[in-house]
């Protein structure tokens, strides 16, 4: 009798704990089912549409994110540099290359609390956009991401905190195009780290 | 011992069932989704600004600091809803969502007549009535059919430079979202 009770307890405990953990864990990571990865950049084309998979729907209900529609644009996130290391405010990065076709693009850093990073000094640039940066004569651009002031294009981040870069293309054929892989994206390279 | 391993395996199968059931239930039982968060702040008939650091904005990961964002909750039960704005900005875009936060319809200023926001949200049934008898003042409007009773609209207007901020803010704040 006692053994039967232990058996039932084991079944229930494994089922409830295991099942809940699997659900919790599956909706909190960055890269999941339905994500498209281009270099360092990840996007979720189906999130926020009726065609989304159950994981994306669950995440939508939990995050309450207001995903951009196909006519609005598409956001790409990067939490790694080109070598696969997590982005951190302790290092300086360079984003270089070209943006895919878009009427406007914007770039900002997302902090640990999932909102755009805020800094103590409001004059520091926490976001950049396509009509407010300097371009090279080849048409490409270089942006320094650093906690310390940099010349030319500079995106400020908090020192030492990890961050995620959000790169959004507005009114872009990329948003309505499923063949995402063809377009060119800028690369994120680590320049140096404070020891 | 073998019976315990057997119980463990049965438990794992149960875990799979619990996982699937809880995953499918989350969108229906979530009390903190976009609709609920917006309900606490929006006012009827107008767009309410979503401030960058507000409670609603937190965890809406893609709320771009280069944009002024306004939200409006609407109901089609009493009739169609008209979205309108005075003037233009450098770039604006708009999405209609159902109560669960799924995107139903999106548009930007290039697609509309002259870059002006002039839109009517109807149910498919209300749209048929419009086709029979189109009011003259709505002839240039964009019609969006949404097969929902209630939903919300998010209007995003781009701030090309800091000096524009107040004007763009006024554009969003003064945009209408009223029942016809």
Commentary on this structure:
The complex is a heterodimer of chains A (195) and B (180). With 195 residues, chain A is α+β, with helices and mostly antiparallel strands. In chain A, 20% of the residues lie in helices and 27% in strands. Chain A is built from three helices and ten strands. The longest helix of chain A has 25 residues, at 2-26. The model of chain A has no long low-confidence stretch (mean pLDDT 86). Chain B is α+β, with helices and mostly antiparallel strands. Chain B has helices at 2-29, 34-39, 124-132, 165-173; strands at residues 45-46, 48-49, 67-75, 81-84, 92-98, 103-108, 118-122, 142-145, 150-158, 176-179. Chain B starts with a helix and ends with a strand. The interface between A and B is large, with 62 and 62 residues.
Layout of strands and helices, then pairs:
The complex is a heterodimer of chains A (195) and B (180).
Chain A: H1 2-26, E1 36-38, E2 41-43, H2 54-63, E3 73-78, E4 91-97, E5 104-110, E6 127-129, E7 141-146, E8 154-156, E9 164-170, H3 173-176, E10 187-193
Parallel strand pairs in A: 7-8
Antiparallel strand pairs in A: 1-2, 3-9, 4-7, 4-10, 5-6, 5-9
Chain B: H1 2-29, H2 34-39, E1 45-46, E2 48-49, E3 67-75, E4 81-84, E5 92-98, E6 103-108, E7 118-122, H3 124-132, E8 142-145, E9 150-158, H4 165-173, E10 176-179
Parallel strand pairs in B: 7-8
Antiparallel strand pairs in B: 1-10, 2-3, 3-9, 4-7, 4-10, 5-6, 5-9
Features:
heterodimer, A: 195 residues, alpha+beta, four-stranded antiparallel β-sheet, four-stranded mixed β-sheet, 3 helices, 20% helix, globular, B: 180 residues, five-stranded mixed β-sheet, five-stranded antiparallel β-sheet, 4 helices
Mean pLDDT metric of chain A: 86
- Please name the two chains that share the biggest interface, counting residues whose Cβ lies under 8 Å from a Cβ on the partner chain: A-B, 62 and 62 residues
Q: How is the biggest beta sheet of chain A arranged?
A: 4 strands, antiparallel
**Which strand-content bin applies to the residues of chain A?**
25-35%
The mean pLDDT of chain B is 87
Instruction: Write down how many β-strands of chain A occur, each being a DSSP E stretch of 2 or more residues.
Output: 10
What's the order of the H and E elements of chain A?
Answer: HEEHEEEEEEEHE
Quaternary structure of the protein: heterodimer
Return Rg of chain B in Å: 21 Å
């Amino acid at each position: 009798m006692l053994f039967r009770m232990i058996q039932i307890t084991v079944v229930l405990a494994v089922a409830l704990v295991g099942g809940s953990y699997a659900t919790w864990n599956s909706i909190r990571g960055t890269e999941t089912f339905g994500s498209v990865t281009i270099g360092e950049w990840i996007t979720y084309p189906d999130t926020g549409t009726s065609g989304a998979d159950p994981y994306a729907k669950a995440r939508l209900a939990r995050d309450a994110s207001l995903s951009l529609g196909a006519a609005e644009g598409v956001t790409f996130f990067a939490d790694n540099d080109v070598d696969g290391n997590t982005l951190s405010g302790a290092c300086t990065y360079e984003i270089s290359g070209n943006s895919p076709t878009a009427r406007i693009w914007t770039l900002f850093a997302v902090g640990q609390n999932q909102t755009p990073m805020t800094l103590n000094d409001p004059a520091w640039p926490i976001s950049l956009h396509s009509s407010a940066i300097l371009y090279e004569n080849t048409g490409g651009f270089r942006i320094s991401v650093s906690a310390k002031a940099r010349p030319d294009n500079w995106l400020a981040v908090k020192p030492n905190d990890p961050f995620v870069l959000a790169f959004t293309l507005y009114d872009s054929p990329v948003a309505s195009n499923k063949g995402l892989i063809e377009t060119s994206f800028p690369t994120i390279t680590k320049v140096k780290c404070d020891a | 011992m073998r019976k315990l391993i057997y119980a463990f395996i049965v438990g794992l199968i149960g875990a799979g069932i619990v996982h699937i059931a809880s995953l499918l239930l989350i969108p229906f039982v979530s009390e903190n989704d976009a609709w609920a968060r917006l309900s606490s702040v929006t006012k009827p008939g107008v767009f309410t600004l979503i401030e960058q650091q507000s409670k609603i904005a937190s965890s809406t990961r893609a709320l771009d600091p280069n944009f002024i964002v306004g939200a409006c909750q609407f109901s089609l039960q009493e009739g169609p809803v008209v979205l309108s704005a005075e003037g233009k900005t450098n770039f604006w875009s708009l999405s209609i969502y159902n109560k669960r936060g799924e995107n139903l319809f999106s548009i930007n200023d290039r697609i509309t007549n002259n870059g002006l926001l002039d839109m009517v949200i109807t149910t498919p049934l209300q749209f048929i009535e419009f086709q029979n008898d189109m009011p003259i003042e709505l002839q240039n409007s964009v019609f969006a059919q949404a097969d929902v009773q209630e939903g919300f609209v998010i209007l995003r207007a781009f701030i090309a430079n800091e000096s524009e901020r107040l004007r763009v803010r006024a554009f969003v704040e003064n945009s209408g979202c009223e029942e016809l």
